[in-house]
Design goal:
With about 900 residues, the protein is mainly β. The chain folds into 8 domains: about 10-120, Nucleic acid-binding proteins (OB fold (Dihydrolipoamide Acetyltransferase, E2P), Beta Barrel), CATH 2.40.50; about 285-380, OB fold (Dihydrolipoamide Acetyltransferase, E2P); about 385-485, OB fold (Dihydrolipoamide Acetyltransferase, E2P), CATH 2.40.50; about 495-565, Copper binding periplasmic protein CusF (OB fold (Dihydrolipoamide Acetyltransferase, E2P)); about 570-650, OB fold (Dihydrolipoamide Acetyltransferase, E2P) (Beta Barrel), CATH 2.40.50.140; about 655-735, Copper binding periplasmic protein CusF (OB fold (Dihydrolipoamide Acetyltransferase, E2P), Beta Barrel), CATH 2.40.50.320; about 740-835, OB fold (Dihydrolipoamide Acetyltransferase, E2P) (Beta Barrel); about 840-910, OB fold (Dihydrolipoamide Acetyltransferase, E2P) (Beta Barrel), CATH 2.40.50.320. The chain has 10 helices and 61 strands. The strands form 9 sheets. Strands 1, 2, 3, 4, 5, 6, 7 and 8 form an 8-stranded mixed β-sheet that branches. α2 runs antiparallel to α3. The chain starts with 11 loop residues before the first helix and ends in a 9-residue tail after the last strand. The model is unreliable at about 1-45, about 305-310, about 465-475, about 835-845 and about 910-918 (pLDDT under 50).
């Protein structure tokens, strides 16, 4: 209900009291259903809404259940929505969450939220498992690089011993939904995953079982090295990026150095131990999709990980004389009836097509990854694709064309095709657009070539109908995705659709498995026209498994084939530009360089790759350039679909440059930059894109709206542009009288308005701090130089050696020859040189003790490895339970001086009994 309002205007101070009371009241009775209240603010009402989220209507509304009924609460860009203390959006609210909001009515009478607080209905934390490699450690937090390329940050509470960088880890953490924070509950190192198997090995009665378990232990080494290599590749992408800032770059380089050091150390120990024990050298593994055709010496795959992840591509070399491959039976039969696995990879590489899924074992030396053995997974027609085909087949109409009408005046169509199916007694009207794929007798054609009397299959682009009868009313017009017509035929001729079962070239015969019924064998005359993949073909070009668009015979009793149109079911290569993106089902319209237009379905099994990493379908946009694609043709009931197996896209190459602006045309949005030094200069012609650059167009540290504020002679501090077109993506310009540098503080004025700085080149400037100047001291913003001055004075009083350095300063000088200027931004850092008289050697005497449990992966002299952790044994190490062997589970107590190597104090052999986990 509404609160009573005064006829007199309420002051803003009184309003604040009312709002505070309202929020306090809502907090007090948070779990009690209530209605709404209001108070006048000039001509508008502020209402309080509190209750339970009943329905979520993203992106900008929710339905709240209150005592007074259902209330629709709308959100705008000005609404402040928080879950707990964190900013949120409507999508993060769940049904059942408790809602408290202040709101007002807009001109349409709709309730618009001002401030909204949400308390999650189920505050119970969610348990999550995080699996990967530790790539970073900081106080109370660690970073884990997962196998799918993502980085997860987890808080580590007191009492949990943090792992080391490079450790393989499975962590159990709790996710606080209200804050989004992951907190570690506990973790296990990689050794725990094979501990039960190693325990079972202790009890193995025969050598075969012991060998099997030993092989599993070797597999654990391979997985550990593979995980480290995955993490290293992901970090290298950060390092190689042109847009990585200095801080991120230094952090990534440090992480890579630690991981690479751990990898090299473990790899050396594993290889040495394998040689001593006569075991197979540990190989790394990766599974993924083949990006493009296999080259003479190398190939590229994108690792698996699902469409919600972004794993980066991996380039591998292979030895033409050594690398082997296991092929599925279908590919083996293409070699010969007697072909067996393994095959030499170089001999059969042409049979392995882009989009194929590969399991690869490889070695790595000097950063070169070399495939040792490869397994090609058999192709799958997944359940989802079957569902898509079933759904799509309901949209297909089969009949005879009764009308073709072309109308140039239509805004979004070329014309209309009407067809009738006399057996079903229904008609369909299809709207033909520039995206409709039209074929006649299997060949791409235009709407003008269609005519009445032609047999036709129409595939509609979209419908809410669930059956043909629902979408073929005489008064319904739908967009056509594809129209496949065949020349008019006598009534005694029949058409067969299906799959080619076998081809007998010498006997001029073909067997077809129709969409319904038994296999039909037909003879093919010499003059029977045959079309395959839209081109004239011979019977010898037709392959087993090809899809039969139409096989025409004269009469139902005839076995004489009069015409045949087929398409290859297996991968068809393509390239071109994405000119359309469709939903339900997900599909792309592709236009080739020869202006051919066709559509491809995209499923969860499609490898969609943009710039060497797998992405989701939602990332695709019109205008993207497909450099390498492949699709398989499938379908039913005579309706065919191109199902993409791989779509590889390359974004335009973006480069970075700097220089001096020599020409500018504001009207055309173009400028010319002279880049480089001395005799190695180059002229770069740039243009501003049609869409505003916004915060990516900056001059003198401030955003500008256009090139009107840019002048000849201005210096381009940084520009990112598309190499092929010169289109600007980000541009930062500095005026000629602006200086950006670093240096040290020489003196601060008594009134704290001026600071004398010495720049890195030795020049000294007297700089003024204006009202608009931005000053930072040790990372925090300060309103004036008073804070810096006070800190320096305290240091002088304590006789401490203080140094005020300036990592970065941007200022405008009064004139070209002046040594005065006004600060735009400056960053101060004060360093204290300690002189506490402490002995640094004391830190070296600190003893660190830790307990390690897991499988012994390698023993190389006095160097041992348990789950990737390297330590030494010496004459003081005590063994309990016997002398351990590689593959056994042990508990080791390790000790070390600060920054020293770990040495085993005791090693205890675990004799637990547990069943083998299947």
């Amino acid at each position: 209900m509404k609160m009573a309002t005064s006829k007199r205007p309420i002051s803003f101070s009184l309003l604040r009291v009312h709002v505070a009371v309202l929020v306090a009241l809502a907090s007090t009775i948070f779990w009690i259903d209530a209605g709404t209240a209001s108070a006048d603010v000039r001509s508008a009402d502020i209402e309080g809404v509190f209750g339970t989220a009943f329905e979520i209507r993203p992106p900008s509304a929710i339905i709240v259940a209150s005592n007074s009924g259902l209330v629709t609460l709308n959100f705008t860009v000005d609404s402040d929505l928080r879950i707990g203390s964190n900013k949120a959006d409507v999508l993060e609210i769940a049904e059942g969450d408790r809602v408290v909001s202040t709101a007002t009515r807009n001109d349409d009478g709709q309730l618009v939220a001002l401030r909204t607080l949400v308390r999650v209905a189920n505050a119970q934390p969610i348990t999550k498992h995080v699996v990967g490699v530790v790539t970073g450690l900081s106080e109370g937090e660690l970073s884990i690089q997962t196998r799918n390329g993502g980085v997860v940050n987890v808080l580590v509470p007191a009492g949990i011993d943090a792992p080391l960088v490079g450790d393989g880890i499975t962590m159990v953490a709790r996710l606080d939904r209200s804050s989004g924070i992951l907190t570690a509950v506990g973790f296990e190192l990689t050794s725990k995953t094979v501990e039960r198997i190693q325990d079972a090995r202790d009890k193995a009665a025969d050598q075969a079982e012991s060998d099997r378990l030993a092989e599993i232990a070797i597999e654990a080494r391979s997985k550990h090295l593979s995980a480290l290599d995955d993490a290293a590749r992901a970090i290298m992408r950060v390092i190689d990026s042109d847009r990585t800032d200095k801080e991120t770059l230094e952090k990534a380089q440090s992480q890579l150095s630690e991981i690479q050091s751990r990898f090299d150390e473990l790899k050396g120990i594993y290889e040495s131990a394998a040689r001593n024990r006569g075991e197979e050298q540990p190989l790394l593994r990766v599974s993924g999709g083949l990006v493009e055709e296999i080259g003479l010496r190398s190939f590229t795959v994108v690792p698996e990980g699902g469409r919600d992840t972004n794993p980066f591509s991996v380039e591998l070399t292979y030895d033409p004389d050594e690398t082997t491959v296991d092929l599925p039976n279908a590919l083996l039969r293409e070699i010969s009836r007697s072909a067996i696995n393994p095959q030499l990879f170089s001999d059969v590489r042409a049979l392995i097509e882009p989009g194929s899924e590969l399991d690869i074992k490889y070695s790595i030396r000097d950063k070169v990854r070399t495939a040792v053995s490869i397994k090609v997974k058999p192709p799958r027609l997944v359940e989802e694709l079957e569902a898509v085909l079933e759904h799509e087949s309901l949209r297909a109409f089969h009949g005879v064309i009764t009308l073709v009408e072309i109308d140039d005046s239509l805004a979004d169509a070329q014309g209309i095709v009407i067809a009738a199916n006399e057996k079903q007694g229904v008609k369909a009207a299809a709207k033909v657009t520039d995206q409709t794929e039209i074929t006649l007798n299997g060949r791409v054609t235009a709407l003008t070539e269609l005519d009445t009397g032609q047999s036709v299959d129409i595939q509609f682009e979209s419908t809410d109908g669930n059956s043909i009868s629902d979408i073929t009313g005489s008064d319904i017009t739908l967009r056509a995705l594809a129209i496949r017509a065949r020349s008019s035929v006598p009534t005694e001729e029949e058409n067969i659709s299906g799959v080619v079962e076998s081809v007998d070239v010498e006997g001029s015969a073909i067997s077809i498995q129709p969409t319904d019924g038994e296999i039909i064998t037909l003879t093919v005359s010499d003059d029977a026209p045959i079309v395959r993949n839209g081109a004239i073909a011979t019977l010898g070009d037709v392959s087993e498994g090809d899809l039969v668009v139409t096989a025409t015979i004269v009469g139902s009793e005839s076995d004489q084939l009069s015409s045949l149109v087929v398409v290859a079911r297996r991968n068809v290569k393509f390239s071109g530009t994405i000119t359309g993106v469709g939903q339900a089902p997900e599909r792309l319209q592709v236009t080739t360089d020869s202006a051919q237009v066709f559509n491809v379905l995209v499923t969860d099994e499609t490898w969609v790759i943009v710039d060497d990493r797998r992405v989701k379908f939602e990332s695709l946009e019109t205008g993207m350039n497909i450099v390498n694609g492949a699709y398989s043709v499938t379908g039913r009931n005579g309706t065919l679909y191109n199902v993409a197996t791989i779509i590889s896209i390359e974004s335009p190459k973006v480069v970075k440059a700097s220089g001096i602006i020599t020409e500018i045309n504001v009207l055309e949005g173009t400028l010319t930059v002279l880049s480089g030094r001395s005799t190695e200069t180059r002229v770069i012609n740039l243009k501003v894109p049609e869409t505003p650059l916004g915060e990516n167009l900056i001059k003198d540290g401030r955003m500008i709206r256009s090139l009107l504020e840019v002048e000849r002679g201005d210096r381009v501090d940084m520009v990112f542009y598309v190499l092929e077109t010169g289109e600007i993506q980000k541009l930062s310009i500095v005026s000629d009288n602006f200086i950006q540098s670093r240096g040290t503080v020489v003196e601060i004025s008594e009134n704290n308005r001026f600071v004398v700085v010495e720049l890195a080149n030795g020049d000294v400037f007297d700089l003024w701090v204006s009202r608009n100047s931005v000053a930072l001291l040790n990372g925090r913003r300060i309103p004036s130089l008073a804070s810096l001055n006070a800190l320096m004075n305290i240091g002088n009083e304590k006789q401490e050696d203080l140094t005020a350095v300036i990592p970065e300063v941007l200022f405008i000088r009064d004139s070209i020859d002046s040594n005065r200027g006004v600060i735009i931004s400056i960053n101060f850092q004060v360093k204290v040189d300690p002189d506490d008289g402490s002995d640094g050697n004391d830190q070296q005497n600190v003893v660190i003790e830790t307990t390690l449990s897991g499988v012994i992966e390698a023993i190389d002299g006095n160097r041992w490895v348990i789950d990737g952790e390297v330590f030494r044994v010496d004459e003081n190490t005590r063994f309990q339970g016997g002398t351990p062997k590689v593959g056994e589970v042990v508990v080791a107590v390790l000790v070390s001086r600060t920054h020293g190597d770990f040495v085993a104090r005791t090693i205890n052999i675990s004799r637990k009994s547990s069943p083998i986990s299947s």
